[in-house]
Design a protein that fits this description.
There is one protein chain. This protein is an alpha/beta fold and about 270 residues long. The protein has a single domain, classed as HUPs (Rossmann fold), CATH 3.40.50.620. Helices cover about 45% and strands about 10% of the residues. It contains 11 helices and 6 strands. It has a 6-stranded mixed β-sheet, with helices on both faces. The longest helix has 23 residues. The radius of gyration is 19 Å and the shape is globular.
Length: about 270
Amino acid sequence: MRQVLKAKSAYSNDDVQRVYDSIGDYVTEEEADAAVTAAAAETLTVLNNRPDDAVYGWSGGKDSIALQVVMERAGVRRALLGTIPHVEFRAYLDWCDAHQPDGLTVIENRTVTPAWLALPQNDRYLFPTNSTDGYRWTMLGTRRAQHLYQEEHGPRLQIYGRRTADGNSIPPTDHGIHRTRRLTSYCPMRTWSHELVLAVIHYNRRCLPPVYSWPNGWRTGTGSWPGRRVGTRDASFAETYSIEPDRLHEAAPDLPAAADWLRRHEETAL
């Protein structure tokens, strides 16, 4: 197994695409299958061979697709997705509808709208410029869904695709299990490299969402369009427009910043 992709902050979008296009040069099918088998076996050990006691997080992103392969091998059938439908890319939601795993529960946050973003106290969440404000989008979508699902269904374990190679912090406990007041989580892929994730997707012939063909897709991953961190606000609006212009036209009546950018863009195009 060869590793060339380091921390997310150190690789470019093109770097990941080049590796994915030639993934067989980095990870063999046997290595990928062995990693899935080991992760599935550990999952069953953690669950005392009771896979119905758990739910896994699925976003359609690369890590969650690889995690889905592991969960299918382990027999974990319940999955969870948190979305913010008023500010998601339409192509992403359509892809999720078409490719979602069996047993998926979708929990929507319909409170967050373009009008919500226009409130002065929420302006900093429009294309956030720091990790603290960027994490707010995780809290509004994924984390909110995790907490609500836990309250309603009470699984013994929530399983995530978090990895240390992606900068995620995994506690030094047995199997990296993390317990909080609200829930207990576990990350069976915590030591996987970026190359191994891509290889599991490739060798299991899984389809990737359109996100990864978009500008900066490998670096930003899935998520609501206002939560993308790709540069200045104008650059972020421009990139959003290049992906799905309708999202800005829909937002403009309630989001003055979007209306202003569209006006300037249209004036420049004349």
